[in-house]
Write a structure and sequence with these properties.
single chain; 15 helices; mainly alpha; globular; two-stranded antiparallel sheet
């Protein structure tokens, strides 16, 4: 179903999809991206040491948080735009915000962090982090533009190429310079993939830029103020609460090698669940919105939960039973301990997989503050657990088990509030 909307110059009407893009193609492209991501993990597992990957995991955690803060969920504003005019203004404003603010604030923050010794990184890694944060933020906006303007082929190509180019550049840099160049290779790969997305969408962006005046962009900034004020903080807190703060704390307490193993276990397991999880969210979210409005979320949960739990256990089953053996066989013996971490963190994976599609009812009821407080509470707990583990000299595996069990209760509380 489409609606015709005149463009901002009063020109001929364009067809704008009421639902952005084709869900089937999105699912296929996400599965392809996860397959490439798994292949990337397979390659890196054979080429780098756990210590080097641990250092790289700190880079990933830092850039993930930085891009979430800079992006401020502006990609969602583009994705949820109602018509052609709103897509134009939100896209131009969002890219302009990321470029201007990223070019001013990010270098200042990295300089301050290096001078105060808060981040143990050099100038090259700081530049790599800056390029990754700005490049990934623009890439996410372009990805959502492709989705909402029904450029599903560009969306699919962009999803797969982003990971494919990064792993190609990283592999090449490892063979030439060694595994200490993972972060630099990531930044170069991200810059290249973002540039490709810009070129693919340039005809559309050129039209947008010509039709948006400075006054229109200023008005768009005012409309997007809620994203700029709350979006970055909420997205940054959500990312830290999910895994990045855990990785940083493990690196701080136990060193780079355990942090690398934790990151490897998180990314490979999430990769196995990611494609199905995204498909479920796309499929169930519209029904959750309607059910939340009519007070029928419990009925929806009873209808779908048994099937989702069965799918999660089916996917995670081999990881839980043979995780250490599988990781040693597939990725190499140095990664076999990552299998133990997968077992320890499995309650988080299962709860997140089952509960996350239904937690969207919180947003349908405009309970954004409740979700933000929930994320902050999880971060507070894991920091307190890390302080206790440091004081009592608890090893990494019991620490992960405690965090995993506690996070399970957090997710059950979220489910209760969602229903």
């Amino acid at each position: 179903m489409t609606a015709k909307v005149e463009d901002s110059q009063g020109g001929p009407a364009r067809k704008i999809p009421s639902v952005p893009g084709n869900l089937i193609q999105f699912i296929i492209s996400n599965i392809g991206a996860q397959a490439v991501s798994f292949a990337a993990a397979l390659i890196l597992g054979r080429l780098v040491t756990t210590s080097s990957f641990g250092q790289y995991s700190i880079f990933l955690a830092t850039t993930s948080i930085g891009s979430a803060l800079l992006l401020s969920r502006l990609d969602m504003a583009v994705a949820l735009s109602k018509d052609a005019i709103e897509i134009e203004k939100n896209t131009v404003t969002s890219i302009a915000f990321v470029v201007v603010i990223g070019s001013i604030v990010a270098p200042l923050l990295f300089c301050a962090a290096m001078l105060s010794h808060l981040l143990a990184i050099g100038l090259v890694d700081a530049c790599a982090a800056y390029v990754t944060i700005v490049g990934f933020s623009i890439y996410q906006i372009l990805l959502m533009l492709a989705a909402n303007s029904r450029r599903t082929r560009i969306y699919s190509v962009g999803r797969v190429l982003n990971i494919l180019i990064i792993i190609f550049v990283q592999t090449l840099s490892i063979f030439i310079f060694g595994d200490s160049t993972l972060a630099l290779g990531h930044s170069i790969g991200q810059a290249v993939s973002t540039t490709i997305m810009l070129l693919l969408l340039w005809p559309l962006l050129k039209t947008f830029g010509g039709s948006c005046s400075s006054s229109q962009i200023s008005a768009s900034c005012r409309r997007l103020s809620s994203y700029l004020i709350w979006g970055g903080a909420a997205a940054g807190v959500n990312i830290m609460a999910q895994r990045e703060i855990l990785v940083l704390l493990v690196a701080l307490l136990y060193g780079n090698s355990p942090a690398g193993l934790v990151t490897f276990s998180l990314r490979t397991t999430n990769g196995a669940l990611g494609a199905i999880s995204i498909a479920l969210t796309h499929f169930i979210a519209p029904e959750v919105g309607t059910a939340a409005h009519h007070g029928r979320t419990k009925i929806l949960f009873r209808n779908y939960a048994p099937w989702i739990i069965a799918a999660g256990l089916l996917i995670l089953g081999p990881f839980l039973v043979f995780s250490k053996e599988l990781y040693g066989l597939v990725f190499g013996l140095q990664w076999s301990d990552a299998g133990n971490y997968v077992r320890a963190l499995s309650p988080i994976f299962i709860c997140q997989f089952v509960i996350s599609p239904f937690s969207t009812s919180m947003f349908a009821r405009n309970q954004h503050i409740t979700v933000l407080v929930w994320d902050i509470a999880r971060i507070g707990f894991v920091c307190a657990a890390a302080w206790f583990a440091y004081s009592a000299e608890v090893s990494v595996l019991p620490f992960l088990v405690v965090v995993s069990v506690a996070y399970s209760f957090f997710y059950l509380w979220l489910l209760w509030r969602s229903l």
